[in-house]
Task: structure prediction
Amino acid sequence: MCGVNLPNWVTLGRILLVPIFALAYLLPFPGTYWLASALFALAAVSDWLDGYLARKLGQTTHFGAFIDPVADKLIVVTALTLLVGSHANFWMTFAGIVIVSREVFISALREWMAEMNRRGQVAVVRLAKVKTALQMVAVAMLLAQPPDLGSAWVLVGYALLYAATVMTLWSMTIYLLAAWPTLASGLKHRR
Result:
């Protein structure tokens, strides 16, 4: 593939892990929760690794800038969908809706800001990186355990997921405030 370098291959590998970890989570065999969690954790680490390699090797590409956030969203949305389905309660569903909605909203906002030549106004903030790390740890913990609210590990996973959910709303607010002048000017113009 033209333009595909080592960091991009790591990202593509992360995408390939999505159906594998989903299948592992859904299989009714002992140990599959741990396997799904380990595969998810591997994908989360590869998210850091591809960015590190791209910067260290000087191999940042337009393709990488496009595919990396796609891979991130695929892995998180798939994991949250699995957790919402298996936990089947208000608390997991609410957190899942908030996190997935924010991802869709921010993706659309970034695309629109890029169209307006103002993508830099919605660059990733440090809070979003902390949110992502917390979210990844919470999801990995929750994937590793059967959906039992009597389990201390599940309760810790819920607590971490809700901390990530609060940070999700907070970071979305930061992005929205940064983009607001451009959004407001766009509301004044008709198509």
Summary: The radius of gyration is 18 Å.
